[in-house]
């Protein structure tokens, strides 16, 4: 089993000392119960990770470790943006958690036509929760990159994002139970970027599907089952990992 990963503002180079304190230190000392001589990893969420060994426990929320191996991992290619229609409250952060564990590079919250959830007047709070969920999930899955969480967008904004991805040689996949083609038929091998559009519990509005396909998106069916909105992006990311070089490392 790989050592646990913790976030720091700046990753030390080989031989350097790192002090874990605050919430990260508390998790390392009191939850993970790391002791002197045990291994851990520290990362900055931007690709840099250092393997360390604990040298001292100073308190219930502070430890000191020494770095002995540094690595930098670039983002996998093609990069994947998940445009996620707002799920209901109990599944909102779950969608972010699963997409992060599956490898999403960017997650954009979308107030689509059929969303039951509404972030009107509280978008900052919702985005903060998504960022916290992404950070925790990336740490749990030992990811060197924490996915970017975008601002809340409207359908007009989604149109612009999808048009830009398609114009740049990317693939835009609208996940839809009545999709025109199977997910596996998408031209993913040569794609520079992939955008996954995920609807809410009530599904995508027909006008949204028509608008996005007119801009170069493809309406696709992911499989024989109808997936919950919180799971759809993660399942699609798994398929992309197999159908591209993203998992070949």
TrEMBL record:
GO terms for cellular component: cytoplasm. It comes from the Bacteria. It is an enzyme of class 2 (transferase). It catalyses: uridine(1498) in 16S rRNA + S-adenosyl-L-methionine = N(3)-methyluridine(1498) in 16S rRNA + S-adenosyl-L-homocysteine + H(+). Residues 20-65 form the Ribosomal RNA small subunit methyltransferase E PUA-like domain. GO terms for biological process: rRNA base methylation. Its EC number is 2.1.1.193. Keywords: Cytoplasm, Methyltransferase, rRNA processing, S-adenosyl-L-methionine, Transferase. It is found in: Cytoplasm. Its main location: cytoplasm. Specifically methylates the N3 position of the uracil ring of uridine 1498 (m3U1498) in 16S rRNA. Acts on the fully assembled 30S ribosomal subunit. Belongs to the RNA methyltransferase RsmE family. This is Ribosomal RNA small subunit methyltransferase E. It comes from Gordonia otitidis (strain DSM 44809 / CCUG 52243 / JCM 12355 / NBRC 100426 / IFM 10032). The lineage of its organism: Bacteria, Bacillati, Actinomycetota, Actinomycetes, Mycobacteriales.
């Amino acid at each position: 089993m790989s050592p646990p990963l913790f976030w720091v503002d700046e990753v030390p180079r080989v031989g350097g000392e790192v002090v874990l304190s605050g919430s990260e230190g508390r998790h390392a000392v009191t939850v993970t119960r790391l002791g002197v001589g045990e291994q851990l990893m520290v990362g900055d969420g931007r690709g840099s990770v250092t393997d360390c060994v604990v040298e001292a426990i100073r308190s219930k929320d502070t430890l000191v470790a020494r770095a002995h191996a540094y690595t930098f991992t670039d983002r996998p290619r093609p990069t994947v943006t998940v445009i996620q229609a707002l799920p209901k409250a109990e599944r909102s952060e779950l969608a972010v958690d699963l997409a992060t564990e599956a490898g999403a590079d960017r997650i954009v919250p979308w107030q689509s036509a059929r969303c039951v959830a509404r972030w009107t007047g509280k978008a900052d709070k919702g985005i903060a929760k998504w960022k916290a969920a992404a950070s925790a999930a990336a740490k749990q899955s030992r990811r060197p990159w924490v996915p970017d969480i975008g601002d809340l967008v409207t359908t007009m904004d989604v149109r612009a994002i999808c048009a830009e991805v398609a114009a740049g040689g990317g693939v835009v996949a609208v996940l839809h139970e009545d999709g025109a083609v199977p997910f596996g038929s998408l031209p993913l091998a040569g794609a520079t970027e992939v955008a996954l559009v995920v609807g809410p519990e009530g599904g995508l509005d027909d006008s949204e599907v028509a608008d996005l396909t007119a801009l170069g998106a493809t309406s696709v069916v992911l499989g024989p089952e109808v997936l919950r909105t919180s799971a759809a992006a993660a399942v699609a990311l798994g398929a992309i990992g197999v159908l591209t070089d993203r998992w070949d490392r």
